[in-house]
Amino acid sequence: MQGIKIVIGSLLYLLTISAIAQDDLLASLEETQSNEHTWVEATFKGTRLINGHTIETRKKGVMDFIISHRFGTIDGGSYDLFGLDVATMRIGLEYALSDRLYFGLGRSTFEKTFDGFLKYRLIRQSKGKGSKPFSATWLSSMAIKTLKDPERELGFTDKVANTHQLLIASKISSGISLQLMPTFVHRNLIGEEDINNDAYALGVGGRVKISQRLALCAEYYHQFQKLNENSTNAIAVGVDIETGGHVFQLQFTNATAMIPKGFVTETTNDFFEGEIHFGFNVSRTFQLK
Fold this sequence. Notes:
By secondary structure, this protein is mostly beta strands. It has helices at 2-35, 260-265, and strands at residues 38-39, 62-73, 87-96, 101-108, 113-123, 126-127, 135-145, 160-171, 176-187, 198-209, 214-223, 235-243, 246-253, 277-287. The mean pLDDT is 88. Pfam families: DUF5777.
C-alpha cells in the first residue's frame, strides 16, 4: 500500500510540474504574439467608400478597372423609370506602382471631364509592438472639364480644378471601419454665380460588415466654404457585394459627379427631398506582375 501511495504521489507531482510548465509556455507564447507586429488588412474592401476614396491602395502590380454609373433622380417617377432613363458614367483605370503608391486616370460624361489622381499610404494601422491605431493616405487629384462654354473661350488652365485630401481611417473591429476625409478643392476659374475659388470640407464615412460578402456603407461631406449658394452637402448610403475578383457597390446619393471636386462642391440635390440618384460602382482587378 505504501508503494502505491508513493507512485500516486509521484504522478500527481509530475502532473503539477507539467501543468505549471504548460502555463508558463502559454503565457510566453501569448506575450510573444501580443508583441508581434502585424498590419491591419482590409479596412475597406475597395479603393472607394461610395463616391469618395478610401485609404486603401492595391498591391504592387495590380491594375483596377472601375466603371461607375449614376442614374437620374428617383423623384422623376415612373415616366423616367425612377431615374433609369438618364445615366452619367465614369470609366477609370488604376494601377499600383508599389504597395503604397497608386495612381489612376478616368473620364466622366459629367461635364466631359478627364481626371487623374495619385494616392500614397503614409501610415498603416498595425497591432503588436509599435502599433498604430489608424491608417492615413494622401490623395491629390486633378480634373479637366472639357465641356464647351458657348459664352466664352477658355484656356487649358481655366478648365483645371485640383483636390487634396487626407484620408484617415481605423478598423475598429473585424466588422466596423470608420474614416475622416479633410478636403480642399481649388478651381482656377469660377463662374459668375460662384463665390469662392477655394472650398474646404470634411467628410465622414464608415463601413459595417453584415456577412462574409455583404457590408453597409455611408458617407457625408460637410462644406465649410461653398462654391455657390446652390451647392448642397453630399450624402450617400450603399451596399458592398464581394464576388471573387469583383466588388459591386450599389448606392443611393444626391451627388451626380463621381470625382472629388464634383461631388464635394457641385452637388445641388437635396437628399431629404427625394432628389436621390441610384448608382453603382463595379471594380475588377488584374494582377499584372
